[in-house]
Each structure stands twice: as C-alpha cells, then as structure tokens.
Design goal:
disordered N terminus, alpha/beta
C-alpha cells in the first residue's frame, strides 16, 4: 500500500503526470517526464539525485516559478482540489508563500541586497494578510526570533550582506515560514554551510515541522540529510522518479540500482574500511536521452529488458522503475539511520 492508502487520508499535495519542456517548438526538450508523487500533512519527503536529474526544476514547477514564455508545464498538481497548473499569475501569487513556500539554494542570490531582512519579511506578510506596517514589523521580528536569530529586532534593520551565511539561511527560512505555509520546499538548504551550521538548520526545520505540522519537501544530493531527517525517499534520475519508498526500507534494501549506487557512494553510509564505489558516467542531457531505461548506460545490472521504456511499478510498499527489480538483490547501507 502506498502512504496515502495506509493512513486513509487525502494527501496535502498530489502531483501526477508532471511534464516540463524547455524551449519552443521543435527545439523543445523534456526535462521532467511524467513525475508523480504525494505529500501528506506533516510528512518529510526527500528528493535525491545527482545534479541535472530534475530535482530543482520539480520544485520550481510546484512554485509556479518557471519562465512562462520558454517553459511548457503539463500535468496535475492538486492542492485542496485545485490544479495549481490551471491558476493564473494572480491566483498563484496568493498560493505562493501562503500555502507553499520555498527555501532557495543560495540565500545571497534569493535575498534582495537593497532591502533589509525585515522589509523582505514584512513585504511577504503584507502581501498575504490585511495588516499594517507596525503589525508586519512585529510579526517579522517574531519570525526572526523563531528561527533562532539573535537580537532579532536589530537584525530586522540589517541587509543580507551584514549577516553570516548561517544567519542568511535562517532569514530565508523566516521569510518562507512567516505566512505559515502548509508545504515548505527546501532546495539544498545546507549546501554552502559548515557542518555545525548544517546540523542546526536541519534541526530547526525538523522542530518547526513537528510544531506546526508543516510538510517538508527536501531537495538534496545529500542522502545523509535524507536518512536523518526524512520519512520518505524519492529518487530522481534524468527527469524521472525511479524509486519511491519509505526511507528506512530504501536505505537497507533499495530496489533500483541508481538508489543503491547513491547509497554506496556516500562515505557516511558506507561500511568502514571498505572501498568507496562510484557510479560510472554522467546524467544525460534532456536532448540526448537514451532509449528504454534512462539509467541503463550506467547500470552494471542492465539486460535485454532494459532496452524498452520501463513504467513506475507499484510493489505495494514502494514504487520502482526497474525491469529487473524482482531478480536483483541490491546493497544498501549498513544501518537504518545515522547515529
């Protein structure tokens, strides 16, 4: 049974048949191919894969932030019975920030350098609530305090360049959470931070999710983050979901060779004193996708069946896109969770 069937409740977000094409006319290429998944209230889902697999594009599609004139997005993204893809720009602005928010990968690129941190939070609040400047300021200061920024009233009046990398990321989280969204998309939220700050940011997101029942969608290449923070794992490769499983089950017994390869190539999840494996080759570009299984050219287990396209197969406890899943026993990591 898939997660929404187990709990018997309707998912907060249901994505189905999501396709993203970049370019116009004959020059268009499909970067995302028939992606589908669900996210429940309070659930923490991790999307993993190498750079170029479509993780960030999926997040931007959910936020309605892909350029309209050069991008064609089709499919369904259902929230409260509404397909977000059918909403116009103004209607989507009311959803963005209020219902779904996003923490972007690099805060210095996402934060506006000519406005103070407090002004950027206040602007978000006033866009979604009928409140005055004084109340918006009070709420913004409270948001900065909630994410652990010291002296929040002082930081309200400071500019992004005056904050450290860790505090800028916390400010990004404060902006994203200011309007209490039901789904928070975190795109590589700890990439540019040192290990100590990384742990603090992850702990902060988990605490906020637990306290507010906000669903989290982690977009990351770090399986260590997913292992310690998420309850479900989506593995993406070349624009497709190739495995959708409970995190513990996927860590111990992955059913797709790509998930297994990612786990085995991560030092923290590889047994000590063992040789660190790697996945040969690289992710194909959207304009040069192989026929059949997209991972086949890099897969040590490929066979004749892999020459044909493979659907996402429902195995009951998970979904997997592998023609040989029933005959393969793939290695995972030694432990279910990081210590």
């Amino acid at each position: 049974m898939m997660p929404e069937q187990i709990n018997g409740n309707e998912p907060l977000l249901r994505v189905s048949g999501l396709n993203v094409h970049f370019g116009i006319g004959a020059a268009a290429v499909r970067a995302i191919a028939d992606v589908g998944f669900t996210v429940r209230k309070g659930e923490r889902v991790g999307i993993v894969g190498e750079s170029g697999c479509g993780k960030t594009v999926t997040g931007l599609a959910l936020m309605g932030l892909l350029p309209r004139h050069t991008t064609h997005v089709t499919g369904q993204m259902l929230m409260d019975g509404r397909n977000l893809l059918e909403l116009g720009p103004r209607a989507m602005q009311r959803v963005r920030g209020r219902q779904i928010a996003m923490i972007f990968q690099e805060p210095m690129n996402a934060l506006d350098p000519v406005f103070t941190i407090g002004e950027q939070i206040s602007e978000t609040l006033r866009a979604h609530f009928r409140i005055g400047r004084a109340e918006a300021r009070d709420r913004a200061v409270a948001a900065l305090e909630a994410v652990g920024i010291p002296l929040p009233a002082r930081r309200y009046s400071e500019y992004p360049h005056q904050l450290s990398g860790g505090m800028r990321q916390r400010a990004m989280i404060a902006i994203a959470l200011a309007c209490e969204p039901r789904l928070l998309i975190a795109d590589e939220p700890t990439t540019a931070l040192d290990v100590t700050i990384q742990a603090q940011i992850i702990d902060l997101l988990l605490e906020l999710s637990s306290r507010t029942e906000t669903a989290l969608l982690f977009i990351t290449h770090d399986l260590g983050v997913v292992a310690s923070a998420c309850t479900r794992l989506l593995t993406m490769y070349a624009g497709e979901i190739v495995e959708d499983a409970d995190v513990d089950a996927a860590l111990v017994a992955p059913r797709h060779p790509y998930t297994s390869g990612l786990l085995r190539s991560l030092p923290r999840l590889t047994p000590r004193k063992s040789r660190l494996p790697s996945i040969a080759g690289q992710v194909p570009s959207p304009a040069e996708m192989p026929e059949g299984c997209r991972f086949a050219p890099r897969c040590a287990h490929r066979g004749p069946l892999c020459a044909n396209p493979v659907p996402l197969i429902d195995l009951g406890d998970r979904r997997v896109r592998c023609a040989r899943h029933a005959e393969l026993t793939l290695p995972g990591c030694a432990e279910r969770r990081l210590a």
